Amino acid sequence: MTSSQAMVLENAGGPLVMRTRELPLPTGQQIVIRVLACAVCRTDLHLMDEELPDIRYPIIPGHQVVGEVVTCGPEASSEPGQLVGAAWLGHTCGSCDHCTRGSENLCDAARFHGYQIDGGFAQHMMADSRYCFPLEDGTDPLATAPLLCAGLIGYRAFSKAGDAAHLGIYGFGAAAHIVCQVAAQQGQKIYAFTREGDEEAQAFARRCGAVWVGSSTDAAPVPLDAALIFAPVGALVPKALRDVRKGGSVVCGGIHMSDIPAFPYADLWGERQISSVANLTREDGREFLELARRLTINTEVHTYPLAAANDALRDLREGVFSGSAVLVPG
Predict the structure, then answer these.
(1) 283 near 156, Cβ under 8 Å?
(2) Please, are residues 123 and 139 in contact by the beta-carbon 8 Å criterion?
(3) Of 56 and 167, which is predicted with more confidence?
(4) pLDDT at residue 1 tops 90
(5) What DSSP element (H or E) covers 242?
(6) Which residues, at least 6 apart from 245, have a Cβ–Cβ distance to it below 8 Å?
(7) Which residue spans within 105-153 are E strands per DSSP?
(8) Angle at CA of residue 239, ends 185 and 182, nearest 5°
(9) Sign of torsion, CA 281 277 322 293?
(10) 52: Cβ–Cβ under 8 A, 6 or more apart, which residues?
(11) How far is 309 from 113, CA to CA, in rounded Å?
(12) Average pLDDT of 48-57?
């Protein structure tokens, strides 16, 4: 048994409370990870606010984990001492139509770290080695943790946008600041839309490579080929549709979004498309982490001790920082 401290969400609305828990020895494909860094995600807020269905309480949030393998089950594909990343997807059935067709992110039996499986707001966490990503020795845990959700979900949304020469990004937080750097280094022009008057976020977008920044109420300066929406604001969908050209697409990148208001069919007409991104696949993770090794991606992180997880969540909610908050168990 491994004794571990964790920040636990015991009831909807929180707050998280520090508890000492015992982790049993891993069996089968399981591994125990000593958490080195766990980035904080807006999905953690949706969990706290009970905006996701069928939440299991108590639950330890956290699904952007970089850590060191401590112990392994007899069938695990990892080794003690190995550096690994654990992301949102923690289990699938492996046999349904979605799984067998390469869309395991849509598996109805899927389970997720920090949602149905205890996550990384802890000193240690248990995970299935098949759903963890091996990381190179010398990987910076702080810089890498945000790549494991903000990066992965951002990458899946970015991939669905196709080869967009003019790409709009609505909501400039953790995912956007990673996607913006990827797109800019591939020669695409990024147009960043932030909350009205948020000069700090607009300056941040410029640093990440955006060629234009403005308010989410501003019209795009050019017709966009595609738009990625990371802010959980349904009203941005019809706005983005008006910004994209005929044949353009609007991709909603969040796990939760407020209701999309009614809009005239004329805004959709012209073969414009709306799509969503649901979770991620392990292949997404492998592709993006390889891409990240080839590019220069600077994740802007703001560290908090594990005991200050509630402060990190509050600061994320209030937009206190740009980039990502990262918990460090110490």
Answers:
(1) no
(2) no
(3) 167
(4) no
(5) helix 236-243
(6) 223, 224, 225, 270
(7) 111-112, 124-128, 132-134
(8) 10
(9) positive
(10) 43, 46, 115, 255, 256
(11) 17
(12) 92
Q: Which residue has the tokens 């595609």?
A: 226
- Give all strands (DSSP E) within 24-120, no chain letters: 30-39, 65-72, 83-86, 89-91, 111-112
Distance between CA atoms of residues 169 and 149, nearest Å: 17
11, two tokens: 């009831």
* Averaged pLDDT, 288-305: 94
Give the residue among 171, 314, 196 at the shortest CA–CA distance from 253: 171
How far is 164 from 261, CA to CA, in rounded Å?
A: 26
81 neighbors 290 (Cβ within 8 angstroms): no
Look at the chain and count its residues.
330
| Mean pLDDT score, 173-194 | 95
DSSP structure string for 193-218: EESTT-HHHHHHHHHTT-SEEEETTS
Is residue 277's pLDDT more than 80?
yes
Report the run of H or E that residue 151 belongs to, with start and end.
helix 150-160
pTM score, whole prediction: 0.92
Which structural domains are found in the chain, ordered by start?
A: 2-148+300-328 (3.90.180.10), 151-276 (3.40.50.720)
In this structure, the dihedral spanned by the alpha carbons of residues 145, 151, 104 and 168, taken in order and rounded to 10 degrees, is 160
- Give the helix ranges, DSSP H, for 37-112: 42-48, 97-100
Tokens of 45: 């807020």
Q: How far apart are CA 240 and CA 220, in angstroms?
A: 9
